[in-house]
Amino acid sequence: MTSRSSELDLVLLWHMHQPDYRDYNTGEFMLPWVYLHAIKDYTDMAHHLEKHPGIRLVVNFVPVLLDQLEDYADQFSSGTLRDPLLRLLATPDFDRISPSERLLILNSCFLNNHDTMLKPYPCYQHLRDLYDHLQKMGDKELMYVSGQYLADLLVWYHLAWTGESVRREHECIVNLMSQGKLFSHGDRILLFNLIGELIRDIIPRYRKLAESGQIELSTTPHYHPLAPLLIDFTSARDSQPEVALPAHPVYPGGKKRVAFHLQSAINSHQARFGSAPSGVWPAEGAVSGPLLDILIEHERQWCASGENVLANSLRKSYPEQPLPARNEYLYRPYRYGTENSNILCFFRDDRLSDMIGFEYAKWFGHDAAGNLVQQLEQIHNEAGNNPAPVVSVILDGENAWETYPYNGYYFLNDLYSMLENHPAIRTTTFHAYTTRLAEDKVEITRLPALAAGSWVYGSFSTWIGDHDKNLAWELLCAAKHSYDLVMQSPRLTDEEKAAAEKQLASCESSDWFWWFGDYNSPHSVESFDLAFRKNLTNLYRLLKIPAPITLLEPISRGGTSTGESGAMRHAAS
What are the DSSP calls for 421-443, one per residue? Predict the structure, then answer.
């Protein structure tokens, strides 16, 4: 084994994902989050990389997100808009829109982080104050707001969702923000056209960054399924032995479905970026031994998960030995299974990842960046005899920034600046790191057993185990059973079978199960509950059989929102 490295390798992985919000029956987008994150987060994250060419990192794009980005680009090119909010943004006369469209604007256009995306803008705050005043008089009073109020509200909602880099590089955004109110149809068309331009540029920008060698692009099984549970529900008991499981003992044909999602993702990546992905970030960092066997069969070189999964795996592998000190086991890759296994597993530093995701938004950007670098320096100093220490920092590349002032602009700019020229910290990618290990013939620690789990608590409790989540699984299992029977019969054409398979894949996303439960707000649960049931109902329609009447009733209603609600969770409970 070689001596300790003089540098600490740092792999930042930004995970970009949104579930499939399309209603496959109508073609309409049920929720706008793909294009809103596109004009705010995907643009800003590309901008920071373009301004800091010395930074190396990994960007993980889930294929179903890319599918939807291309769908939006096609909408702008064709002029046929299937997103209700975008369609309204381009509508000429707001005094003539329908009552349901008025309600859509009123119910949608305050859905953001008010501290960072509403209160800083007096004109937007004024619109909120008027809304609150009218609401106190009764919901019916809101129907008397003018078309101009609705136009201004819709414009401000989109302005608040633009990225900081967009505001700095596009004069029309500055002009509209300075104008503040009384936006005309022409003003809205300027904003609308810019949104289309930004969306069309996203995939080419990241492909260019990858072709330059600055970033590595990785993937996730296509529709973001919770793969270990699709393969085997009992994998949840690796971390929670007493967890309640769905009534169905197993998801029908789950292993083949996971292989389908993975191969589809590889094909998608190849088509969009010109090469197959070296590595895979499984949905939710959820891994199990059978899943890694599938990754090995598909010749992927690396995957990653959460720190708690590693700790549980070490306990499972060496039950008679106490867990070593954290810095002795975390900052290294592991070879799963046999010595000849061709896949390396990396495990994220949950503490540092959660600092970015949840804590640094409360700091001044420069101070937060300095603190992160200082902690990395401490890890390097404590690396001991580790010949190639590597820190994996992995988290959402989109949801965190909504809580940061200026969409995290100063934090990311200062962090990249500090890392770009740091004498002891080397930013890199998983592919580059694994290639260097092979060239230097560095011995890789073997992990005999892998405990199934995710990056959230090291378990699957966010997706299975309570009444609502298990009910959702049971409804999906019943639909899959019907799907299998129909697909074996001659009643569907090849084209109809392909449509049904695509719809099934969307139903298998982990995101629906994430939102079920009383720890999420009723509003969030309602929208995702409805989307899941629509997807299942449409699957039955495509199979040409009646949908169960149970799909007319909500699966989950939510409850009191807690600190662990929303689109992000801490790694530890």
Answer: T-SSEEE--HHHHHHHHHHHTPP
Contact present, 465 and 236 (Cβ < 8 Å):
yes
Going by C-alpha positions, the residue among 393, 352, 396, 324 that lies closest to residue 16 is: 396
Lowest mean pLDDT among 4-8, 111-115, 263-267, 452-456: 4-8
Distance CA 104, CA 527 (A): 13
pTM score over 0.90: yes
Give the chain's radius of gyration (CA, Å): 24
At residue 225, the 3 state secondary structure works out as: strand
Q: What is the DSSP string of 171-204?
A: HHHHHHHHH-S---HHHHHHHHHHHHHHHHHHHH
**Chain centroid, CA 486 distance in Å:** 32
Rounded Cα distance between 162 and 460, Å, is: 34
Taking the C-alpha atoms of residue 456 and residue 309, their distance in angstroms, rounded to an integer, is 9
**Contacts of residue 318, Cβ cutoff 8 Å, sequence gap at least 6:** none
Q: Is 384 exposed, middle or buried (0-12, 13-18, 19+ CB in 10 A)?
A: exposed
d(CA 163, CA 166): 5
3-class DSSP string for 113-154: CHHHHCCCCHHHHHHHHHHHHHHHCCHHHHHHCCHHHHHHHH
Distance CA 168, CA 151 (A): 24
Whether 105 and 64 have beta carbons less than 8 Å apart is answered as: no
Which residues, 6+ apart, have CB-to-CB distance to 444 below 8 Å?
333, 334, 335, 344, 437
Neighbours of 8 (CB within 10 A): 21
Nearest Cα to 157, choosing from 88, 205, 203?
A: 88
Residue 14 bridge partners (DSSP): 59, 395
Average pLDDT of the chain is: 94
CA distance 143 to 146: 8
Phi/psi at 172 (nearest 5 deg)?
-65, -30
pLDDT in tens, 156-201: 999 999 999 999 999 999 999 999 999 999 999 999 999 999 999 9
Whether pLDDT at 2 is above 80: no
User: In sequence order, which residues have a C-beta less than 8 Å from that of residue 184 and are 6 or more positions away?
Assistant: none
Q: Which residue has the tokens 């002891």?
A: 424
Instruction: Give the helix/strand (H/E) hosting 57.
Output: strand 57-61
Cα separations in angstroms, 81 against 32, 115, 213 = 12, 31, 36
